[in-house]
């Protein structure tokens, strides 16, 4: 157990260093712009006095290291500054938009993991059958078709023709859960496509390899039920590389949320960052890059810790 705690400590340290490196990159976004970053933000026709005042307000008249210390210090206090375009507190914008994106991405990730694993197991245990070929073709197609095209087709089918689901917009689950489900069904569905197909194909490949191992044949010889062999013994070994894939798919979910928010006109965090980039609101971009990256790092950290629960060797050796 002590070695496993050391393993967790190393992962925590690595996550902290990663967030620190991301914070440096996010801070440098403004300074990597060609020309005067303040004039870029305010526009070429901005008055020189206004540019100078903004430079002082943003501490850009200070040395670069001091600027970073002031910026990261304010962020640790919860002060992200004010959006230059919306003239609103960035902290309030994040608090308003982030729950919207999480209410779409979290269900999409959970559904992708559950159904991806189940589909992979079904394909592996029925290898060569009609259901295996059908699901394999379906997963491959899902992974290759553009998300925005799928979203438009689903909107036309379920929104325009059948009128089962609303075409666009968002309702918070706290306001009306049933209405939230109606509005979130299509965005969550299209966000599942890529991650679910990748997880299903990985599980199928791993399961085909595992079910031919000696310990599986031994368990079968002892008369254990097929479901117990699949889900108690085989699935544990299948999940070890799948956890790594899930960590990679988190980034795909975030990218998918951007397209989903654009297609369905949802005011989430991904749409906010797009608007901020297009309008040169780099203070908001800095904050959003840091916050989103921190969420991804935290999710990856939890998955690294989950290795120890899936693979006893990590608990014993501490990941060596």
Task: Note the gap between the termini.
Answer: 14 Å
Number of domains: 2
The fraction of residues in strands falls at under 5%
CATH class of the largest domain: Mainly Alpha
Q: In this structure, how is the largest beta sheet organized?
A: none
Order of helices and strands: HHHHHHHHHHHHH
Look up the CATH topology of the largest domain.
Answer: MetI-like fold
- Rg measurement, Å: 24 Å
Which overall shape is indicated by the principal axes computed on the Cα atoms?
globular
Helix content class: over 70%
The CATH H-level homologous superfamily of the largest domain: MetI-like
Unreliable stretches (pLDDT < 50, length at least 5) are none
If you average the pLDDT, what whole number results?
A: 82
Structural category is mainly alpha
Tally of DSSP β-strands: 0
CATH architecture of the largest domain: Orthogonal Bundle
- Please work out how many helical segments DSSP would assign: 13
Can you give a write-up of this model?
The chain is an all-alpha fold. It folds into 2 domains: 1-85 and 282-320, no CATH class; 96-278, MetI-like (MetI-like fold, Orthogonal Bundle). The protein is 78% helix and 0% strand. The chain has 13 helices and no strands. The chain has helices at residues 2-31, 37-42, 48-57, 64-76, 90-125, 130-144, 147-161, 177-210, 214-221, 226-263, 269-278, 282-310, 312-317. The protein is globular. It starts with a helix and ends with a helix.
């Amino acid at each position: 157990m002590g070695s496993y705690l050391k393993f967790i400590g190393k992962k925590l340290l690595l996550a902290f260093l990663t967030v620190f490196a991301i914070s440096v990159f996010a801070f440098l976004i403004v300074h990597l712009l060609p020309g005067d970053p303040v004039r870029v933000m305010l526009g070429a026709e901005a008055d020189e006095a206004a540019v100078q005042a903004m430079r002082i307000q943003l501490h850009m008249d200070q040395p670069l290291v001091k600027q970073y210390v002031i910026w990261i210090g304010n962020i640790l206090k919860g002060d992200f500054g004010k959006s230059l375009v919306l003239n609103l507190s960035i902290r309030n914008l994040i608090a308003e938009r982030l729950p919207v994106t999480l209410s779409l991405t979290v269900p999409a990730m959970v559904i992708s993991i559950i159904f991806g694993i189940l589909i992979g197991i079904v394909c592996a245990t029925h290898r060569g059958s009609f259901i295996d070929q059908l699901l394999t073709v379906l997963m491959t197609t899902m992974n290759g078709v553009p998300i925005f095209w799928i979203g438009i087709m689903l909107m036309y089918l379920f929104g325009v023709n059948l009128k089962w689901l609303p075409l666009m917009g968002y309702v918070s689950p706290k306001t009306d859960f049933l209405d939230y489900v109606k509005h979130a069904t299509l965005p969550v569905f299209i966000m599942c496509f890529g991650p679910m197909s990748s997880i299903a194909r990985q599980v199928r490949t791993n399961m085909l390899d595992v079910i031919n191992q000696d310990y599986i044949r031994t368990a079968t010889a002892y008369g254990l039920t097929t479901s117990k062999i699949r889900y108690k013994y085989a699935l544990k070994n299948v999940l070890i590389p799948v956890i790594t894939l899930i960590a990679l798919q988190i980034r795909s979910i975030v990218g998918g949320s951007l397209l989903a928010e654009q297609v369905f006109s949802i005011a989430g965090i991904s749409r906010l960052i797009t608007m901020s980039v297009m309008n040169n609101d780099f203070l908001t971009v800095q904050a959003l890059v840091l916050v989103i990256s921190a969420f991804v790092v935290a999710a990856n950290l939890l998955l690294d810790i989950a290795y120890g629960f899936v693979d006893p060797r990590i608990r014993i050796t501490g990941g060596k």
